[in-house]
Amino acid sequence: MPDGELQRVRLAAAFVAERASARPRVGVVLGSGLGAFADQLSSGLRIPYAEIPDMPRSSVVGHAGNLCTGSLGSVEVACLQGRAHVYEGNSHVRSVFGVRLLAELGCSVVLLTNAAGGIHGSFAAGDLMLITDHLNLMGDNPLCGPNFGAGPRFPDMSQAYDLRLQTLAREAARHADVTLREGVYAAMLGPSYETPAEIRMLRTLGADAVGMSTVPEVIALRQLGVRVGAISCITNLAAGLSAQLLDHSEVEATARRSRDAFTAVLTRWVISAGTDAA
C-alpha cells in the first residue's frame, strides 16, 4: 500500500483527535441495524463520516455513518456506526480505512460486529455468534500492494480472534444471561445473497455463518498488532435453509429485535476488554 494511504489515515486521526476529549482504548465497529449501541457512550462526540478527511462512506440502509467517541464506565471508546463494504465499489484497501483509523487513534483492542446468515443447523434468527475463526472468500486481501506502515509483510493469522477476548465475551454473555453461539464466519463479496448450492459448499468447508464484511478489517487490524474480537448477529437463515426469501429489511428487523441482548453483551464486553487492556 502506498505511503499516501498511511498519511491519509494519520490526517483523519489528527482531525478526530482535535475534537475528541480523550484517547480511546477500545474501538467498536457496528454492523447493519446494530448502531444503537453508540447511544450509550457518555460525554460523547459524533462526527459524520462525510466530515472526516478521506473517510469512505456507507450507502447501506442500517449504517448511520458516524464516528462516535465517549466512555463506557472508565473505558474510553471510539465507535464506527456502520462500515464501508467492498461491494459498494470500495477497494479492499478503502474498506479498512475505518479500522486503521481506530488503530491510529490509539485503540489497542477492536471489537467487530456484523449481521450474518446462519448456516449451522442449530442457529436461529436472533442468535448471537462469537466468531472464533473465518474463511476469506472475498477474492482479495486488504494487504495486497505495498506494505502498510511498519507492520509485518506476512502477518500470522493462526489466532486472528484473540483468545482472551473470546473468554471475556463468554463471560459477558453469561452475566447478561444471553446464549452466545460460537463458530466460523465465511466472508463472501456480495451484494447478492448466496445460492443454496453455495451455502452447501460453505457448510462443507466448515462455515457456521456467512456475511459480506468483517474479515478484511480483521486482517488489517492484525497486521497492525491490534487485538480483535467479533460477534455476529444471526439475522436470518442462509439460502436454502428456510422457505423464506432473503431480504435486507429482514436483516434490519431481526437486528432491532436482538438489540437488547446484543447491547447487554457488547457493553459488558467493551468494559471488560478495556479494563483488561489497561
Outline the secondary-structure elements.
Layout: H1 3-19, E1 26-30, E2 42-48, E3 66-72, E4 75-81, H2 92-95, H3 97-105, E5 109-118, E6 128-137, H4 163-176, E7 180-188, H5 196-205, E8 209-211, H6 215-223, E9 227-237, H7 248-257, H8 259-277
Parallel strand pairs: 1-4, 1-5, 5-9, 6-7, 7-8
Antiparallel strand pairs: 2-3, 3-4, 5-8, 6-9
Helix pairs in contact: 1-3, 4-8
What would your notes on this structure say?
- The chain is an alpha/beta fold and 278 residues long.
- The protein has a single domain (3-277), classed as Nucleoside phosphorylase domain (Rossmann fold).
- Helices cover 33% and strands 25% of the residues.
- It has a five-stranded mixed beta barrel with strand order 5-8-7-6-9, surrounded by five helices.
- A hairpin with a 2-residue loop joins strand 3 and strand 4 (75-81).
- It is globular, with a radius of gyration of 17 Å.
- The mean pLDDT is 90.
Q: What is CATH's topology name?
A: Rossmann fold
Largest sheet: 5 strands, mixed, barrel
Helix proportion range? 25-40%
Rounded average pLDDT = 90
Note the run of SSEs as H and E: HEEEEHHEEHEHEHEHH
Number of helices: 8
Could you give the count of β-strands?
9
